[in-house]
Amino acid sequence: MRIPIWIIVASSVAFPVAAMAAEGNPAAGKARAEAAGCFACHGVDGVATADGLATDKNDPNLAAQPDLYLQFQLVFFRKGVRKNEVMNAMAQQLSDDDLRNVSAYFASLPPPNPPASPDTAPEDTELGSKVAQAIHCTNCHGDHFEGVDNIARLAGQREDYVYEALRDFKSGARTSTGAAGMAEVVYPLGDLEMKALAHYVSGLR
Predict the structure, then answer these.
(1) What is the pLDDT of residue 19?
(2) Assigned architecture for domain 5-108
(3) What confidence tens digit (pLDDT) does each residue in 146-199 have?
């Protein structure tokens, strides 16, 4: 069951729900994202760039992420609830309107294209699918891992990013900012299962 949005906001960032729910302007968001330098790492199409990955391999794809999820993450970065030196500094420069507009822009983009080559590790895909069912990932992330409300889209996300996120949730290096306590969700998973799960969801569209 998802934690109500108002509880997350009130307890974590004290940011008004009405402000979070306000509709952003994708065109204004594109212009602001370009000015802020977002495209250097996340790409104008919302897909992580080679240059960005050379600087920080923890750059996710943002294309087609739920609008509200993106808004929440930017607020968390701005408040320091989520830690990343580059993003903390960048989010500090965003007004509430900027935050909504940038989120609306990336949410409006089509999801990343499916892999051009055949599955390189079908055994990981099979195991990852079983792991996802066992820990009920779709309860929060949507039936097709498309993301729901303030919960991230996992379909088409970078495999190495998902794997690193799972490891960080399990170790406590990253605090869950979604509807579930991710540390508890991934606690029973070993490294093999986390790698397989990351491989599985990255191949979904």
Answers:
(1) 55
(2) Orthogonal Bundle (1.10)
(3) 999 999 999 999 999 999 999 999 999 888 766 568 999 999 999 999 999 999
141 touches 151 (CB < 8 A): yes
Q: What is the 3-state secondary structure (H, E, C) of 66-125?
A: CHHHHHHHHHHHHHCCCCCHHHHHHHHCCCHHHHHHHHHHHHHCCCCCCCCCCCCCHHHH
C-alpha span between 148 and 67 (Å, rounded): 9
Q: Quote the distance between the C-alpha of residue 40 and its chain's center.
A: 17
The closest alpha carbon to 182, from 146, 139, 149, 143, belongs to 139
Locus of tokens 């940011």: 15
Backbone angles phi, psi at 153, to 5 degrees: -75, 130
Q: What is the mean pLDDT of the chain?
A: 89
Q: Pick the closest to residue 197 from 140, 131, 153 (CA basis).
A: 131
Using CB atoms within 10 Å of the CB of residue 89, give its burial: 0 to 12 exposed, 13 to 18 middle, 19+ buried.
exposed
Domain boundaries, the chain: 5-108, 122-202
Residue of 108, 197, 117 whose CA lies nearest to 157: 197
φ and ψ at 151, to 5 degrees? -110, 135
* CATH placement of domain 122-202: 1.10.760.10
- State the sign of the Cα–Cα–Cα–Cα dihedral 161, 167, 170, 175: negative
